[in-house]
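Appendix B, record 7
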Amino acid sequence: MQELIKFENVKKTYNIGEKSFNALDGADFSINKGEFVVVLGPSGAGKSTLLNLLGGMDKVTSGSIIVGGKDISKYNDKQLTEYRAENIGFIFQFYNILPTLTVLENVELVDSIVKNPKDAKQILKEVGLEEHYNKFPNQLSGGEQQRVSIARAIAKDPLLLLCDEPTGALDSKTGVEVLKLLKKQCDANNGENTVIIVTHNSLIAEVADRVIRLKNGKVESNTINKNPKNIEEVNW
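C-alpha cells (predicted):
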C-alpha cells in the first residue's frame, strides 16, 4: 500500500508559566492510504495534539509531518488554511454544528470552502437524514447531530477524515451506527479515503486496519490488524 502520512520525530511543546511539557515527544509512525486507523491512549497521551497537528490546526515545535509527499510542518498559515480546506474533514465529539442553521444549511457550508463539494442532499440521504433537511440541531438527537457532522465532513470529499472521540457522547447502539458510516467513508472512492479516529475506547481498535498506541506523548506501538472484525461482530 502507498504511504500517505509520516511523522518523523515530532515534538509539540507547550509552555505554562515557567514550565513546559511535551504533548508529543518524538512521535514516529506512518499510515498508508486507505486505512481505517485508530489511535489509542489515556487522557493526556497526546491523541488530540496528534490530530490537531495532522489537521493543520497547530504547528510542530520540531520534527516533520509528511502528507502525500509534502512536508506540512513547513507550511505557513495561508498554506495550512488551504491544506485544511482541500484535504481534511473533521468530526468532533460534540458535533460543532451551527445551532442557527438547518441540517441542510450546515452541510452546504462546505460549498464555500472547497471547489468540488459533494451534493449536500445526497450526502444527507446516505447518512439517513433525508427527512430532516429543514430541522435545526436542537430538534435532533445526539446521534442525528453527529450524522450531520459526518455529512458535513464527507461533503468535502476529503483526503483525510480526522475524528476526535466521534462516539464519545453517544450510547453504544448509536455509536455503532456512526462507526459504520465512518467505515463506509473509508471504503468509498475505491478504498482511497483514509479515516483516523482518536479514542480511549479500545473496542474500536478491533475493527481498525492499523492501531497506534500513545503514552506520555510517545508512540508505544504501531501495529497492523491482520484480521479486523466487522463492526457488528464486536461485543459493544
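Remarks on this record: The domain at 3-228 is CATH 3.40.50.300 (Rossmann fold). The first strand starts at residue 3 and ends at 16.
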